[in-house]
Amino acid sequence: MLLWILLSVCCIAAAQQRSSSYSGEYGGGGGKRFSHSGNQLDGPITAIRVRANRNYITGIQVRYGTSWSEYKGGSAGDLEEIFLHPGESIIQVSGKYSSYLRKLMFVTNKGRYFQIGKDYGTSFNGVPLFPNTVLRFISGSSGSVIDAIGFHWDYASSNCVHCAK
């Protein structure tokens, strides 16, 4: 009887649909580690600030709901801001890297895309493994530039007051 219950629990757990996935890490091995895992509790990604100089992505900051994450990276280069529309989510992030991150391109579920940085280095394409999932938060490492970045995907936040259902 106990074996049957254990087998039933294992089958139910295996049948549950998975939704979270990870793409990365793209870049080099330097810098100090960071993760926005806790920031996703503030809501979905609603804006991104990226700083780039003539060679690298030097900094990044993400707004989750109405709260900005801590800025990661250095202060060199020009700052660009990307604001998402209500109900808009990032569904793909591609770019280039070498020892550091060189280029980012964000693609949204509304067909918009945003490019920042220089078009040289090794290419990457970060996408979710499961359908109907979106970028929920980022992680990586940084110093005076963004050394590496990774992308964490899951279903859009169900408690989002700013999103169109």
Protein described:
- The chain has 165 residues and is mainly beta.
- Helix content is 8%, strand content 49%.
- It has one helix and 13 strands; from the N terminus they run αβββββββββββββ.
- Strands 3, 4, 5, 6 and 7 form a five-stranded antiparallel β-sheet that branches. A four-stranded antiparallel β-sheet has the order 1-13-12-2, with no helix packed on it. A four-stranded antiparallel β-sheet has the order 10-9-8-11, with no helix packed on it.
- β9 (101-108) and β10 form a beta hairpin.
- The chain starts with a helix and ends in an 11-residue tail after the last strand.
List unreliable stretches of 5+ residues: 6-15, 161-165
Percent strand: over 45%
The major sheet is characterized as:
5 strands, antiparallel
The percent of residues in helical segments reads: under 10%
How many H/I helical runs?
Answer: 1
* Integer average pLDDT: 90
- Which geometry do the CA atoms define? globular
End-to-end C-alpha gap = 45 Å
Number of DSSP-assigned strands: 13
What would you report as the Rg, rounded to the nearest angstrom? 18 Å
The assigned structural class equals: mainly beta
Order of helices and strands: HEEEEEEEEEEEEE
